[in-house]
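Hi all, long-time lurker, first post. I run a small reading group and we've been trying to get comfortable going from sequence to structure in the token notation. Rather than ask abstract questions, I figured I'd post a concrete chain and ask someone more experienced to write out its structure so we can walk through it together at our next meeting. Sequence below, copied exactly:
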Amino acid sequence: MVDKNLKLSIVVPVFNEEGNVRELHRAIFSACQKLGNNFEIIFIDDGSTDKTAENCKNLTPLKFIQFRQNFGQTAAFDVGIKEAKGDIIITMDGDLQNDPEDIKLLLEEMEKGYDVVSGWRWQRKDSFMKKFFSRVANLLRKILIKDNIHDSGCSLKAYKKECFDGVDLFGEMHRFIPAILELSGFKAGEVKVSHHPRIHGKTKYNWKRALKGLVDMFSVWFWRKYASRPLHLFGGTGIIFSLIGFAILIWMALEKLFYNQSLSEKIWPLVGLFMIMVGIQLFVSGLLADILIRNYYKNRGTMNYTIKEITSR
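-- Answer (accepted) --
Happy to help. Here is the structure in token form:
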């Protein structure tokens, strides 16, 4: 039976963290008890090949979810969030680098009216390369997404439960959850949190995850700017390409008519025709994407806006 007074759900993906899960559970339990709220702890084993699952068996209280194989951190966050029953969902890493004592800071910041509060590891205890890639990603994110979050890669975050109504996470999207939620009108804030060096196990971050995160960043950028109007992106770009192509062909025609220039050995007529064809294809793609987007919202029974409140007096 679900506790109707359940306040907090702590969601933690773990993958090959046999040396950390017991201490992490103890730290979370202690921090949550100090807060005086009802809580649940959810660990998601993302296909660990060590003794992570075995070390979780006797931990209590704990809701333990085990994947059949490694599906990635975003998938683990997705299932953990969907299983959460608390009014507020706290997510964090399973490597003991996030400090459960900072949950209090997230909740205090949330009381200022935020729907989402992200942790900011302002003094990171990671390797130079990891911090370098993170700073590059943060710079690109500020340019493309503009979510005003200093450290989107920090897993220590607090969310109101209603933030995830109808939200599914894919790829490496967990880094951009605040930006995704801002698209629906939720208010995101940030607070400085502590960060500890990894003691047990190895980091799971590598260049492949960085590349996947970059691709997902462009996906979020598209949804942020053109999700409800793809024709503006594809159609507008198609028109520009077509106009450039027509201009090239007119230029070639003028050279032929007034200057008697031979066009048989010039590549520009082909370039002009190619750009016109590309422009037409982009415009048609925009029309098709526009139809798909309309069907997407229609089938979900939603629109590209959310309503916070309706009052009548």
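A couple of things your group might point at:
The radius of gyration is 25 Å.
The chain has two domains: 8-226, 230-300.
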